[in-house]
Amino acid sequence: MKKLATLITITAGLTVLPIANALAAWTELGSNDAMSVSIDSDTLRRDGDKAQILSMLDLKKPGENPKTKQVVNSLIGLNEYNCSNATYRPIEFKEFAGNKGSGKVVTDNKTPDSPFEPVVSGSWTAGVFNVACKVK
Which of 42, 58, 67, 133 could form a disulfide with 83 if both were Cys (CB 3.0 to 4.6 A apart)? Predict the structure, then answer.
C-alpha cells in the first residue's frame, strides 16, 4: 500500500512539470557567480520522510547540453528529498534555451528511478532541501 501511495505522489508530481514555468510563482533562494536557485513553494508535497518540490536553476553564463550541444540557460526540475537522511534524486527535469524556463525546451528528462544521492552542504540542493524538509 505504501508503494502505491508513493507512486501516486510521484505521478501527481510529474503532471505539474509541463506547465510549471508558465504558472509557477518562483521564489529565489539564493545565487552565486554561476546561477540563481528558485523554488515554487506551491508545488511542495510531503509524504512522511519524503518531500517533492519544483526548483529552477537560472544560469548566469550559458551552458551546453553535452549530448545535443545546444545552449542551455535554465533548468526546471522536480526533485524528491528524503528528509530523514539528507538525500535527493531528480524525478524529472527540463533544460531550456532561455533564462527562467523560457525559450525552446532543449531536453525533457524523466528519471523516476534515479538513485538517491547525498545533499552536499553549500550546494543548490542543500538550499532546496532546507525548504522542502523544514519542520512544519
Answer: 133
Sign of CA pseudo-dihedral 15, 91, 17, 27? positive
Q: Are the CB atoms for 66 and 48 separated by under 8 Å? A: no
pLDDT in tens, 86-123: 999 999 999 999 999 999 999 999 999 999 999 999 99
Indicate which CATH number applies to the domain containing 127.
Answer: 2.40.128
- Sole residue written with cell 552565486: 32
Q: Cβ-count burial of 126 within 10 angstroms (0-12 exposed, 13-18 middle, 19+ buried)?
A: middle
**Residue 81, C-alpha cell as written in the block:** 528529498
Nearest-angstrom CA–CA distance, 48 and 42? 18
Q: 64 in helix, strand or coil?
A: strand
Range of the domain at 31: 2-132
Number of domains making up the chain: 1
Return d(Cα 113, Cα 131) in angstroms, integer: 23
Residue 118 bridge partners (DSSP)? 87
